[in-house]
Design a protein that fits this description.
mainly alpha; 9 helices; 70% helix
Length: 266
């Protein structure tokens, strides 16, 4: 059973989030279904960039218009996006040390999967603008973080030390998951086709998958381990305090729509 989300989103906004998540997943997994160059590889990244950004904006607008994110929740989204954008340069990715994932995990846990998904996108977008990291890789980073925040909001119920342990383990796993997804964005173009771990169009899925697993292990296991350890440690150390702050803010903000009683007609 999932934890109770402080920011709940209604059906229409859930559909928008699900659609954006599905398209983002397709964008990651295209090497297994489409060969490079079939749709013009030199133009694909800008098209994906534009399409995914439009979907992110649609998610936010849908949540606002449907009442899923009110002004207070939107303000919280803006504050946490700014904090995460400021935290990211502190790690700078050196040796895989990333300082943004623990906040995504904790915020997704408290505020829910829809909020976590949107926060992942907006955090990386703001960070890219702040650090000059805008490029064809940015939408992949945005959606990788969006999945981290969304899945954190879907974790089962737990309390106390059990909850912190659950979030720390999930944060560690999400560090590997993020790297695994991001590698898919450039794997087909990064190696000599004669390499035994390179992408080779036309191979059966099982062999293609085997090549990718070897590529991921050979090129980013150490980097992903640094990210996993950083997130695990950060959640263990600051997780209890941050969860308390988030939940207190959620109670005081009262993100649930106000109930109004209208007089009966007649």
């Amino acid at each position: 059973m999932n934890s109770v989300a402080a920011v709940r989103i209604p059906g229409r906004a859930r559909i928008a989030v699900a659609l954006a998540a599905f398209v983002g997943l397709v964008a990651f997994c295209w090497p297994f279904v489409v060969a490079p160059g079939r749709f013009g590889s030199s133009y694909a990244p800008p098209l994906i960039f534009g399409a995914l950004l439009v979907l992110v904006i649609a998610v936010v607008v849908a949540e606002i218009s449907a009442g899923g994110i009110d002004a207070k929740a939107l303000a919280m989204l803006g504050v946490l996006s700014a904090v995460n954008a400021g935290l990211r340069p502190l790690g700078a990715g050196t040796a895989g040390i990333e300082t943004v994932f623990f906040l995504l995990v904790l915020a997704g846990r408290v505020f829910g999967p829809g909020f976590g998904f949107t926060l992942g996108c907006t955090s990386l977008f703001a960070s890219a603008l702040l650090t000059g990291g805008v490029g064809p890789w940015m939408p992949y980073q945005m959606f990788g973080c969006a999945f981290v925040g969304m899945l954190a909001g879907m974790l089962p119920r737990a309390r106390g030390k059990g909850e912190i342990a659950l979030l720390a383990v999930y944060g560690s796993v999400s560090g590997y998951l993020f790297g695994f997804l991001l590698n898919l964005s450039f794997w087909p173009f990064s190696l000599d086709p004669n390499s035994s771990i390179a992408y080779l169009p036309g191979l059966p899925f099982t062999e293609q998958w085997h090549r990718y697993l070897l590529f991921d292990l050979a090129t980013s296991l150490g980097w992903d381990t640094g990210r996993a350890v950083t997130t695990f440690t950060a959640v263990l150390i600051v997780g209890p305090a941050v969860l308390t702050v988030f939940r207190r803010a959620a109670r005081r903000a009262n993100f649930e729509p106000e109930v109004r009683f209208e007089p009966a007609a007649g």
